Amino acid sequence: MSGEVPRLEVRDVTVRFAGVTALDGVGFTVEPGSLHAVIGPNGAGKSTCFNVLSGLCRPASGSVRLGGTELVGLPPHRIAALGVARTFQNIALSPHLTAAGNLMLARHRLTRAGFLACGLRLPSARREERRHAARVREIAEFTGVAAHLATPAGLLPYGVRKRLELARALCLEPAVLLLDEPVAGMNGGERREMARTIQRVRAGLGVSVLLVEHDMDLVARLADEVTVLDFGRRIAGGTPEEIQRHPDVVRAYLGTEAPA
Ligand SMILES: Nc1ncnc2c1ncn2[C@@H]1O[C@H](COP(=O)(O)OP(=O)(O)OP(=O)(O)O)[C@@H](O)[C@H]1O
Questions:
Q1: Full domain range(s) for residue 60
Q2: pLDDT of 17-72, one tens digit each?
Q3: CA 43 to ligand 1 centroid distance, Å
Q4: What interface predicted TM-score (ipTM) does this complex get?
Q5: Which of 173, 194, 219 is the last residue of a domain?
Q6: How many beta carbons lie within 10 A of that of residue 61, not counting itself?
Q7: Of 173, 191, 206, which residue is a domain's last?
Q8: Beta pairing partners, 8
Q9: Which of 67, 68, 179, 225: disulfide with 6, CB 3.0–4.6 Å?
């Protein structure tokens, strides 16, 4: 499948908030099927970068292209429909819906007309519904949440909810998956489980993954390429090994958390 996954190209993106340049001419490329991490100290611009890619924030200038398609200026639901799906730092699941319900809701976003037909209980819609349910089960198995499908999302342990959030993003059948701090707040066991899940998803589904993460062990273990931001600027890019030796990166992290 990675043969069909388009390249994501971020070029010269600048974002300004009153008095603050959150991103200053930032550019990088996520190669098809690769895992690309964006790291940097607090306030470096990582979240802003994600918000630009998913359409929540419009840059003052610059471009984001998925294959031949310009994403800047498109609303978030169009960007998701084109194949860029994201998770959030703070889990955004419906707590009263079951895990399966949350995933089915995401599937319905794929086909809005399907949702209407489904409400009218047309036979074609019932077939479609069964197909969606089968795919939801497949994705749930991939992400290790299949045993929890009947449980309301709000009652699940934190680590499972984070994997469910990832499963929900995958329900949109993305070409590029944006993961916003997927192991934040997790204990060691949950972190290892999430790392395995990300590896499985990437290898099994062939999607590209763009990861924002503070956990350097995870980045070193998973990433093919790393982009380092500091004060809104891209200060370095390369493999995890190259990044850890880069003098500007070491300097940027001094006094905060040194990359392990
Ligand atoms: N909506 C906003 N209005 C004003 N300033 C903002 C806004 N969002 C972000 N900023 C500023 O832009 C800069 C980059 O913030 P951003 O949240 O992207 O950094 P980050 O690397 O994600 O930080 P963290 O690791 O703490 O999440 C910071 O100086 C921040 O204060």
A1: 1-83+174-260
A2: 988 999 999 999 999 999 999 999 999 999 999 999 999 999 999 999 999 899 99
A3: 5
A4: 0.95
A5: 173
A6: 12
A7: 173
A8: 30, 66
A9: 67
